[in-house]
Description:
The structure holds two protein chains of two kinds. Chain A is an all-alpha fold. Helix content of chain A is 77%, strand content 0%. Chain A has helices at 2-10, 14-17, 20-40, 43-69, 83-114, 117-121, 128-156, 168-189, 196-210, 223-231, 233-246, 252-281. In chain A, helix 8 runs parallel beside helix 12. In chain B, helix 3 runs parallel beside helix 5, helix 5 runs parallel beside helix 6 and helix 8 crosses helix 11. By secondary structure, chain B is of the alpha/beta class. In chain B, the strands form three sheets. In chain B, strands 6-7-8-3-9-10 form a six-stranded mixed beta sheet, sandwiched between helices. A four-stranded antiparallel beta sheet of chain B has the order 2-1-4-5, with helices on one face. A four-stranded antiparallel beta sheet of chain B has the order 12-13-11-14, with helices on one face. Chain B has helices spanning 48-55, 77-81, 99-109, 114-127, 143-154, 173-188, 200-206, 224-231, 246-253, 274-283, 298-306; strands spanning 8-19, 22-33, 37-41, 63-68, 71-72, 84-87, 161-165, 192-197, 209-214, 217-222, 235-240, 259-262, 267-271, 290-295.
Amino acid sequence: MAFVQSRANSWQGALTVVDAPKAMRMGWWYVAEYRLRNLMKWIGAVIAFGIGNPVLYLASIGFGVGALVDRNGPGMGPDGVPYLTFLAPALLATAAIQSTFEEVTFPTMHGLKWENVYYAMTATSVTPNQVAQGVMVVAFLRGLFTTIIYWVVLGIAGAFRGTHALLAVPAAMLAGVSFASVMLMLTLRFIDSQNFLASVGRFIITPLFMFSGTFFPLSSIPAWLQWIGWVSPLWHATDLGRFLMYGKDIPTWLVATHLGYLAVLGTVCFLIAQRLITKKMTQ
Amino acid sequence: MEHAPTDDMIVAQGLTKTYGDFTAVDGIDFTVKRGESFGLLGPNGAGKSTTMRMIACTSQRTSGSLQILNRDTDHHGPWIRAHLGVVPQQDNLDRELTVTENLYIYGRYFGLTKQFINTKIEELLDFAQLGDKRDSKVEALSGGMKRRLTIARALINEPEILMLDEPTTGLDPQARHILWDRLFRLKETGVTLIITTHYMDEAEQLCDRLVVMDKGTFMAEGSPAGLIQKYVSREVIEVRFGSDRNAEAAEHIRDLADRLEILPDRILMYTEDGERDLARVLERGHHPITSLVRRSSLEDVFLRLTGRSLVD
């Protein structure tokens, strides 16, 4: 047995082999590394959905509805821009939200409920907080990747006017990360309940998508439905994206509100998520 | 890099863990020295796994003290864990990854370099006899192979202490024997082992020293042979007269044994010479349906100490 024979010489022990301070510092990155490695197994699907989704939306809503809206004449759509340009920041933010959502929910269920792989991580120097951090890092990277693909497709389709088109990406990512924090928190909170993910799809994602000023300005829906937009990261990011991308005329306080709301929501929910995962994993 | 200056790997004093009103671990004291193979033997719910989780720094104690590698587990959890190898009761391998990928990512959690891990993987695949499964996905492995992979994974950082929580529960006899052989090799090379089990044969094979645990406390402590010597006689005669006749027959043969245990299905007679005393039972005209003479085991120690069997 080569292992045992060589042990006497080569076995130095963890006190020598492991650089504990470095391992303790970098735990969040090792978690991210693991998730990225898993993700690479599905990279084909990630790219296919990344391209397929925008193409579908462009074909149906962008071109179909767009033709209807733009019939009023060029520059007569919402905000005085072509419908596709109006729609682009919303679609980008949706793409960011959708991809980060997937990255914080399913892996968390996989890690804590279906297969317990997170418990393998925290048997090492990795802490539960670092697990949450690593998950968020990968959610960010996956969201960014998907959003950039989406952005390229929209660009090819001619959705962008002016020189600030790229600014729609950070606006969208702000929504993606903020919403990912909310979903990570909710997943950890309701991890033991049945049908949690299905309920989220039905009662959170779909209404947000419908009533966040995605396809039409928030002001054109009844006032009693507009609150959905105000709590929705999607609306804040979409409105911010429209401001940054084609200079939609909104007051400075509203720009600050968009930024502040997304930042505070993301930070608070992430801090709560850290507490929840630590509690769950150290009972 | 700090080296452990003493040989005390684990020192627990008055270690206690409560969940609400329930006391899972009730003020236990123990010390484990470098190179020792230390076993926690007890039935389900005895507090073994809770003790293991506190040692593995994934569960905070309620009171008492616990030092591992001379550091307090409450304040140095991640540092301590960086030097442990943990084999949990339930496998938590990533089934979507291959055998080598599972080993690789685990090595990364300890911040080990790619070069170090890749060299180590070859040794570990050899050790775990998984060389021909290296590129198989985990979901294609048998239960015994998964267990061996989990143990191999726990060795990737050359742990100072390897913790095994019921390492062979749920495995068939052949897989258990392969695993025991692997663990025995580790023990021979001087790795400190902490093992929980409810199988006495496992404890006898693998542990230098063990504690019998029940209801959160230690009932007895010693080497397997020492415990048997201290608490039970050398041999046991198991006789069955049929469940309705056992109690009555016991009264007639009680004086032949040092001690008698009447179980629902059989009578255990503790004696120094099983064959001799079984012959005496027969001489008295009592003819059991089946009879068996065997050496005393830790199971008997447990029965003596708690009045209950280890495995229900």
